[in-house]
């Protein structure tokens, strides 16, 4: 009994020590609240806002939760008002059994930042249970020679209440032989003893019936009764004696049903029926009866129910030994249940945050608590996760752990993590519990769209139809959702004079490029611009790419004849002396083509001629030369049609008409053109003729003066080139200056100096030299 009292005191000291250590490490001072059992659900317990010193609404902002040791939701917290109320009626006897005081430990868990307020709720007992005896009638056999003052133990009553509400006193109905004395056991419980006041006389009264009453200390008090049947026996002078007055044994909690716990033994020195011993349980603790079984003949105590150290760690029972004569002896048995590692650790998730935004610094993912119902080394635990994950575990108070990210996460590298939390105890064998958590990583717009190429080159043939698809650009974004949706756009050109908006457009959804107008190679051969790709994140990210559009030439320009001019009021007439040698240069047809490449390669051919074999045209340079010697039979007026054709597909062409006069010498009067002859053939008025003759005379005199002046100037140029000197001699004609200006895409202009040389016998008509003028051609 004294050992039980000492063990109880040690347990209380350990409990107080843990409470003091908890207060030392807690963020707030631990508090105790109290309520009466069986009060209605919703009853007020405490105001945590006031006790914690928090502001209104801070409990909700910090996601406060009430967590009890046994995970039963007996308390309810109003996050708005801070009131802590009962969630259900509390039954002290159901919660704590015979343990007094009945204390329910709980924590108020706060987040952001993490804090734990530890408190306990004392459930005060009310007198809601009356004492009850295990039997409605008990029988005592008392020898008639028992001396006064002999004490006979009686079976105690059970009262589920504690403290003053438990059994305080026993009484017995009035009689002449006995009174009841109330004794205290070492565990604080009271039991009755029947005390003999005077000697019994079996011959006078062999049977007595008394009423035993158990009274508790509640207000109002409750009571329970049982009948005591006393048989007065003849003399039996030796009572059974146990080998040990107290048995103390240990049994493993995983012992099978039917296992032998202990065997008690008693002997009686009497003989016959007075020496025959039988055993019975005299007193057992509350959980004893359905757990152990006593063999009345052998004294063996065996298990009839599985043990659980976490529920009951020790048992106490009293065993009586009776002989045939009605005498008895008593012993006590203390059974200590030895803990084995039969409970795997438990893990309870308090909060879980998923998904986690990528690029976030250290972020709390989960808050959980671990627990092992075993004791000693069997109850010690380690907690871990996989080593190859970007997460770490941070221990906190009261076996709470926080799972946090170990740095920023990148969704593009990995969007989902499977975290396995492993809790292992230190028992033998070791037991473990695993809990899987799926952590998703949400996308943040941290990647700009990337084009597949830094620059794109597109070709489009000129004269295209408007809205023609000329190519595409493409960009990808490694983000997800709206952050990966790409929109394309044309960026403003650096040169504001470039009409980019009227040239091309882009589909914002797929990056397709379209030509808005028909492009002309001769006006615009190439242009470039930048396109942008922007995602739909917030803030939006973008990138750029260069697009160069090259216009391919088409044969859409026919050759254009620069010389001889075809739109002059009077046709150009070329003079050829009849003494000209074969190959004599009559003139040169100059033409250009606005196209490029082979579309601008020109070839010349003589299409029509008055004398088909008299003149020839060089195919590549357009020079018109005599093909043979001239004769008197050749008509003095020659009409040539020269065809100029490009090398495109299909080829385009233009024609030019040349008038050539064959003269014996340059002193021969100028022959009129065919059109002039036709006009002269008409009858003329005499006055008109006179006027024409006078005008011709004056004009001839003026023309002669101009020719002389030009010849003198030309002959003075001298020295630059020997072939370029044109001496003026008798009968010489001044040089003829032909200026062919470049138009269209012709890269230079041609100016020919022409003079007639005399005294050579041939009077050759020569193009002395071209004079170049350069122009900047704008496309």
UniProtKB/TrEMBL annotation:
- Tell me the ranges covered by the Cadherin domain, including all copies: 75-133, 134-242, 243-347, 348-451, 452-561, 576-676
Task: Pull one GO CC term from this UniProt entry.
Answer: photoreceptor connecting cilium
For this UniProt record, the keywords arranged alphabetically read as follows: Calcium, Cell adhesion, Glycoprotein, Membrane, Repeat, Signal, Transmembrane, Transmembrane helix
Record-linked SMART domains: CA
Q: Name one GO biological process term.
A: homophilic cell adhesion via plasma membrane adhesion molecules
UniProt xrefs under Gene3D superfamilies? Cadherins
Q: How does it sit in the membrane?
A: Single-pass membrane protein
Return the Pfam families for the record: Cadherin, Cadherin_2, Cadherin_C_2
Compartments it resides in: Membrane
**Transmembrane stretches, start-end:** 689-712
One term of GO molecular function: calcium ion binding
Which residues fall in a coiled-coil region? none
Superkingdom of source: Eukaryota
Name this protein carries in UniProt? Protocadherin beta 15
The source organism is Bos taurus (Bovine)
Question: Taxonomically, what lineage is the organism?
Answer: Eukaryota, Metazoa, Chordata, Craniata, Vertebrata
